[in-house]
Amino acid sequence: MQMNNAFDPEAAGTLDEATRALVERRARLLGPAYRLFYKEPIHFVRGRGSRLWDADGNEFLDAYNNVVSVGHAHPAVVDAVHRQMATLCTHTRYLQEGILDYAEQLLATFGGAPGDRHLMMTCTGSEANDLATRIAKHRTGNQGVIVTSEAYHGNSECTAGFSPSLGDNSPLGTWVRRIPAPDSYRIGDADLPGFFEQRVREAIADLHRHGQGVAALIVDSLFSSDGIYAHPTSLLRGAVDAVHEAGGLFIADEVQSGFARSGDAMWGYQRHGVSPDIITTGKPMGNGYPVAGVVVDHDVVSKFGRELRYFNTFGGNSVAVAAAQATLNVIEQERLLDNVHTTGAGLLAGLGELAQRHHCIGDVRGAGFYIGVEIVSDHDLKTPDAQLTAQIVNGLRDRRVLISATGPAGNVLKIRPPLVFNGDDAARFLETLDDTLSAVTAVASAGIGSGSR
């Protein structure tokens, strides 16, 4: 998770008095581990749909926050949480119909016969990936986990141990092997499936040499922290087959790529025509309420269930289920998958047109409402330009449009709006990005020349 556009505390002196006081109070009370977005931090006080408003009443277009998947403060979710909190909030050791109704509806989106898969609820995506890995290790008797080079799968001790994007100061487990991301910009779509499968097979062989075996390959199918790679959709089949041949499992991390995000299918892995053994969900599941889950094949979890069991005090509590149920209902009833497909295609096309005019854009890629725009200083060498990327992100922020950056060099614009982002929002975004690119590249050209071919 690159933070090249993060606020630098050393620059606090340039802020207005009220913002500086809030930043200093935050640092004093919350400590040094937290980070703020943007060169000039923003103090938001409310949101609705695809909009946020700061303390001064300024409206911002949100093209970044996927946690509120069906939009900030969606009334259906707000009402469901309020009504359930006013009625009952308890855990899964009591009989409740709500969690069963939700599980039945959610599990149907994965296909298969009733009873083929089960839902185990957690509070966060980190917990979900932690539990999924625990199940995989228990089921296979192996320890090894294979991830992509800049993957992020959580911040618990276990998941941080296979989240290389956290940086060199957060060491990976000795049981972890990294493989290169499927970089379609530099390798090419046609060669990627074979390339990716071969890297997985090499990782499997190395794990066996060191006596670890392979428990799981875990992949976010949009490769969000690696730089956002959505194609080719033939990528995963050979790699998954290789892991199964070696006695391991395939875990699809759908925290980022699930819940209609790709516009092609409800779940990101479905675009690739593979069937995971375990699927994890998180952030968007409750539209901002902390709820997440693990969807797991019956055969995979049966031994774990008999021998170890599972309980999570807040995972699957009745209010969390109400939030998740309302969110899923909105996705289905408002046909947000169709909106993501149509609006996302228009957004990709518009970005492609901007790439023809702005030479700093090396590549536009993604699917639906998860899009990456790679910023380079040299088209022939495909040289990442992290400095210009940060200027673009902050330039958009100054024009009241929110995005972030990702990728190993921090040079990929990360465009990830709520699922309710519509055609008018996309038009505003493209116009503002066009203006921002013109402004920052003009400044760069007058200075060091960044952004030229």
Structural overview:
The protein is an alpha/beta fold and 453 residues long. The chain is built from 12 helices and 16 strands. Helix 2 packs antiparallel against helix 9 and helix 11 packs across helix 12. It is globular. The protein starts with 16 loop residues before the first helix and ends in a 7-residue tail after the last helix. The C terminus is likely disordered.
List the SSEs and their pairings.
Blueprint: H1 17-30, E1 44-48, E2 51-54, E3 59-62, H2 75-85, H3 97-108, E4 117-122, H4 125-140, E5 144-148, H5 157-160, E6 176-179, H6 192-209, E7 214-219, H7 236-245, E8 249-253, E9 278-281, E10 292-297, H8 298-307, H9 318-333, H10 336-357, E11 361-367, E12 370-378, E13 383-384, H11 386-398, E14 401-402, E15 404-406, E16 412-415, H12 423-446
Parallel strand pairs: 3-14, 5-6, 5-7, 7-8, 8-9
Antiparallel strand pairs: 1-2, 2-3, 4-10, 9-10, 11-12, 12-13, 12-16, 15-16
Q: What is the compact description of this entry?
A:
By secondary structure, this protein is of the alpha/beta class. Helices cover 38% and strands 17% of the residues. The chain is built from twelve helices and 16 strands.
The percent of residues in helical segments reads 25-40%
Widest sheet: strand ordering? 4-10-9-8-7-5-6
Silhouette? globular
Task: Note the quaternary state here.
Answer: single chain
**Low-confidence segments, ≥5 residues, pLDDT <50?**
449-453
Which series of helices and strands comes N to C? HEEEHHEHEHEHEHEEEHHHEEEHEEEH
The number of E-state strands comes to 16
Number of helices: 12
Look at the helices and sheets and give the structural class: alpha/beta
Mean pLDDT: 94
The fraction of residues assigned to DSSP E strands is 15-25%
Report the sheet with the most strands, covering strand number, pairing sense and barrel closure: 7 strands, mixed
Cα end-to-end separation: 27 Å
**Rg over CA atoms:** 22 Å
